[in-house]
């Protein structure tokens, strides 16, 4: 009796915790960006990645300076080059966007993690700056999204 009850419940749980998918870039583009070449002196390189167990079925929009760079899923990253200076990174969350404002310099790469957090109705998202070492390690475990 217990097996008859547990099997369908387990199947439903696995279905509900499925992975989200987003459009992906080519393997060549992904490999090139994982060499972490420095951008030109008049550009700042921004890597935003999501590499977390929580909220794997959720997709969340990511913006840089108000421009949509893409919709994230687990184990994906984005790369954009921007003019140096103040940058506003934003991510879609439960009720409104969560913002992170940072100052960047030309000729440097910056790494930011998008993380999923518990929400009232659905999971929310936030962004945090991480070290180059941590960022490069985690980006290596992700794939480039379009």
From TrEMBL:
One Pfam family here: DUF2846
Keywords of this entry: Signal
Domain DUF2846, residue spans: 41-125
Signal peptide: 1-25
Entry keyword Signal: yes
Protein's name in the database: DUF2846 domain-containing protein
């Amino acid at each position: 009796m217990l097996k008859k009850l547990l099997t369908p419940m387990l199947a439903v749980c696995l279905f509900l915790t499925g992975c989200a998918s987003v459009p992906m870039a080519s393997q060549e583009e992904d490999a090139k960006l994982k060499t972490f070449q420095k951008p030109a002196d008049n550009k700042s390189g921004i890597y935003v990645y999501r590499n977390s167990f929580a909220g794997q079925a959720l997709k969340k929009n990511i913006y840089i300076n108000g421009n949509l760079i893409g919709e994230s899923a687990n184990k994906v990253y984005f790369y954009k080059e921007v003019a140096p200076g103040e940058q506003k990174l934003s991510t879609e969350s439960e009720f409104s966007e969560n913002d992170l404002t940072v100052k960047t310099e030309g000729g440097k790469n910056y790494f930011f993690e998008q993380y999923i957090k518990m929400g009232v109705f659905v999971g929310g998202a936030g962004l945090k700056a991480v070290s180059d070492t941590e960022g490069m390690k985690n980006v290596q475990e992700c794939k480039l999204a379009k």
